Amino acid sequence: MRLKNKIILVTASTRGIGLAIVKLCAKEGATVYMAARNLEQANLIAEELNCNGYSIKVVYNDANKQETYISMIDEVIKNEGKIDVLINNFGTSNPKIDLNIEYTKYDDFINIINLNISSVFIASQHAIKYMKKNGGSIINISSISGIVPDISQIAYGVSKASINYLTKEIAGQAASYNIRCNAILPGMTATDAVNNNLTSVFKDYFLRHSPIKRMAFPEEIANAAIYFASDESAFTTGQILAIHGGFGMVTPLYADIIENQYKR
């Protein structure tokens, strides 16, 4: 029960990493608000999980409507009187239009960056107004793409690199209020978004260059969120924690070297 009595808000939380975070936070004793655009789906998930004794509630958030980042936090404050942890899990891209510098259209580039960065900036800015009284923790779900440049999805990578920087800015500027801010950078994770949007060829190439030759489980990313949400990390802020199975950590020749060793 590491999160007992904590009020936690998680964006984009009806599937994948977000849902794994919701479940684990609730299991650790928190009251968890699922911020979602599809309220019907979110309510069904919450009802099912609450049958297990969890405390999960639903609040509306639509990434395309910036004002909902403010209204979702206001609703949590209205209901609970505080917010202890904000987990900015929302992130978007479209591999069909988010290509390389040569072929990505400027409007698509800016739109993806705007959605991803503003989701963190607006929500964090508003949450800090309420966290100033009792302190709190802001956790940004970034991506390994923010520190390892890719040959495609340039807007996504730029937005995640910006979120990494923004994390450190928030950490430094809000520390005097006992507000911490850290980022988690997942590598390739076994979610519906990955399975539906990335080709098997791309996934195979990615895993060839990962020392731990598998995707992460969403729960493995959620475990890091629990640490940053709990008092165990009370002296930890401004950290950019990559959970990537070693991808990008070793020589770019890694895959060829390993495969040649096995051929001997």
Automatic annotation (TrEMBL):
GO biological process: bile acid metabolic process
A UniProt-annotated Pfam family: adh_short_C2
Keyword Oxidoreductase: yes
GO molecular function: oxidoreductase activity
InterPro entries for the chain: NAD(P)-bd_dom_sf, Sc_DH/Rdtase_CS, SDR, SDR_fam
Keyword annotations of the record: Oxidoreductase
Family: Belongs to the short-chain dehydrogenases/reductases (SDR) family.
Record protein name field: NAD(P)-dependent dehydrogenase, short-chain alcohol dehydrogenase family
Species for this entry: Thomasclavelia cocleata
CDD domains the record matches: SDR_c
